[in-house]
């Protein structure tokens, strides 16, 4: 069979259409069988695309040769689908776009006999392919990305030739080795007689002509492309948040649905993996989960720090692999599958910091005796999950904060406060909630004047220490302040602080200011119980 001649007859007067229909029930082959070829060219296409989607095409090729001749030629042909990203700039009204530059982002090559339908209509034969291309994200940053697709049909050679190349190639038998062009120099007393080996193969000096080009043996491939470039956007946005605990790290994956999803987005599966570490899912949801435009889905994972990979002293950053499968729906008959893989770094060097608490400088000078005593008192929280404890020197005053480990979104959460007075006098306190959002900022001293040695000893250490970095979710305070006392010596007092959760994730209660109503000393408590808000 003369493949070149058959392909030239096949491509003469033929054209290729690349269609990206907007509905899933569009079938070009069915329209051609019904005798409506013009309806195929007027098919409604999609308005925009999503990155990481599996785009479904319908490629229609019309040729003047018969259906039997096309069927015989298809085993010798290849179909190549490519996606190219451009920086599109809107040009006037409508959906037209002027593209600048081209960046190849995806390509697939298949045999022309895969997933093909042949239709004979009048004097022409139609070939319909329905390939699928995974539209990955481009490696470069584009301001307004737009993607267009191309299709090439070319000759792949004879099937017999393709199968013969799979055999193991051996050197031919009884072939002489190339001659040594310097063999006569072995008899030279100054060269060969001294015992040195002189050898230059004749293959190194023989002129070797390059192989002839094979382009002239086959006809030029047939090309087709979409009529325009499609604006392309992400279907959802992902970001990570981390909260360090004593023996683990809580990772929160935030998935925000794009407002361009006119229907719904069904999240089929999410996998969060770190090589060499144990990752536990804290999500009680059952897949799939349906979300709409503007929704935010928060998924929580616990990363164990006790794994050997996490305990390595030379390894502080770990690479997490996030794989997400989803289905975006535009209407009842239009759906597209999305599969994305995202790699992000997880910093496992974070640890639970020990916060030293000390009283601030009293506002009144009449309490000098208590001022020196309070300046030496400090407290720190031990390694635990749900208890935040503040104690002064010799255990005079002990505050304990407890809370449930989990709660529901848009519900009330209560922090229980217990105060034990182990001093030898009556005390009065006040608790004031202060929800401040700061990220590792240092509080400047209130007083800029030079202090004496005695005043320096009683200066509040909180004026020179760092606040804990807060990256949790918002909560509403329902109990702005609480009064404790008069609390006699040896007495115990219990009260509660109520909050209302507004979103899912790791809650951030801000800070609680403890005020001594007698000496007017203040103490900011930033280490509060860790509470996780779950979706309803």
UniProtKB/TrEMBL annotation:
<dbReference type="GO" id="GO:0006891">
    <property type="term" value="P:intra-Golgi vesicle-mediated transport"/>
</dbReference>
<dbReference type="Pfam" id="PF12735">
    <property type="entry name" value="IgD3_Trs65"/>
</dbReference>
<protein>
    <recommendedName>
        <fullName>Trafficking protein particle complex II-specific subunit 65 IgD3 domain-containing protein</fullName>
    </recommendedName>
</protein>
<dbReference type="GO" id="GO:1990071">
    <property type="term" value="C:TRAPPII protein complex"/>
</dbReference>
<feature type="domain" description="Trafficking protein particle complex II-specific subunit 65 IgD3">
    <location>
        <begin position="382"/>
        <end position="532"/>
    </location>
</feature>
<dbReference type="GO" id="GO:0005802">
    <property type="term" value="C:trans-Golgi network"/>
</dbReference>
<dbReference type="InterPro" id="IPR024662">
    <property type="entry name" value="Trs65"/>
</dbReference>
<feature type="region of interest" description="Disordered">
    <location>
        <begin position="366"/>
        <end position="389"/>
    </location>
</feature>
<dbReference type="InterPro" id="IPR055420">
    <property type="entry name" value="IgD3_Trs65"/>
</dbReference>
């Amino acid at each position: 069979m003369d493949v070149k001649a058959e392909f030239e007859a096949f491509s003469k007067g033929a054209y290729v259409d690349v269609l990206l229909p907007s509905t899933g029930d569009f079938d070009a082959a069915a329209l051609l069988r019904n005798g409506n070829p013009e309806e195929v060219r007027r098919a409604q296409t999609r308005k925009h695309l999503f990155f990481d989607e599996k785009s479904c095409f319908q490629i229609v090729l019309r040729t003047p040769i018969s259906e039997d001749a096309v069927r015989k030629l298809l085993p010798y042909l290849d179909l190549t689908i490519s996606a190219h990203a451009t920086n599109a700039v809107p040009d006037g009204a409508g959906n037209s776009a002027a593209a600048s530059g081209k960046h190849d982002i995806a390509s697939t090559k298949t045999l022309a006999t895969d997933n093909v339908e042949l239709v004979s209509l009048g004097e022409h034969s139609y070939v319909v392919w329905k390939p699928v291309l995974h539209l990955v994200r481009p490696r470069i940053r584009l301001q307004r990305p737009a993607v267009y697709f191309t299709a090439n049909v070319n000759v792949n050679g004879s099937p017999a030739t393709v199968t013969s190349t799979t055999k193991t190639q051996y050197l031919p038998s009884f072939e002489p080795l190339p001659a040594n062009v310097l063999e006569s120099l072995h008899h030279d007393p100054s060269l060969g007689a001294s015992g040195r080996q002189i050898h230059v193969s004749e293959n190194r000096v023989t002129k070797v002509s390059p192989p002839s080009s094979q382009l002239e043996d086959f006809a030029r491939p047939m090309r087709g492309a979409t009529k325009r470039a499609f604006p392309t956007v992400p279907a959802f946005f992902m970001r990570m948040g981390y909260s360090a605990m004593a023996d683990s790290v809580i990772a929160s994956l935030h998935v925000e649905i794009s407002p361009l999803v006119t229907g719904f987005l069904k999240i089929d599966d999410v996998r969060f993996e770190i090589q060499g570490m144990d990752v536990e899912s804290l999500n009680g949801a059952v897949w799939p989960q349906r979300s709409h435009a503007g929704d935010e889905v928060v998924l929580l994972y616990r990363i164990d720090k006790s794994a050997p990979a996490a305990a390595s002293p030379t390894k502080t950053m770990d690479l997490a692999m996030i794989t997400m499968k989803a289905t975006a729906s535009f209407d009842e008959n239009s759906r597209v599958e999305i599969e994305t893989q995202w790699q992000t770094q997880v910093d496992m060097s974070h640890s639970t910091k020990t916060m030293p608490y000390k009283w601030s400088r009293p506002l009144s000078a009449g309490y000098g005796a208590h001022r020196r005593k309070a300046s030496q008192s400090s407290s720190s929280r031990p390694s635990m999950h749900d208890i935040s404890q503040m104690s002064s020197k010799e255990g005079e005053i002990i505050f304990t904060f407890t809370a449930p480990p989990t709660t529901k979104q848009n519900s009330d959460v209560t922090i229980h406060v217990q105060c034990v007075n182990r001093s030898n006098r009556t005390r009065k306190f006040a608790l004031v909630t202060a929800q401040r959002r700061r990220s590792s900022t240092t509080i400047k001293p209130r007083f800029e004047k030079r202090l004496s040695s005695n005043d320096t000893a009683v200066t509040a250490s909180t004026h020179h220490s760092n606040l804990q970095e807060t990256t949790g979710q918002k909560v509403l305070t329902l109990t702005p302040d609480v009064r404790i006392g008069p609390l006699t010596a040896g007495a115990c007092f219990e009260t509660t602080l109520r909050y209302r959760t507004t979103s899912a994730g790791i809650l951030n209660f801000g800070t609680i200011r403890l005020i001594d109503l007698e000496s007017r000393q203040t103490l900011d408590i930033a280490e509060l119980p860790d509470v996780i808000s779950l979706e309803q």
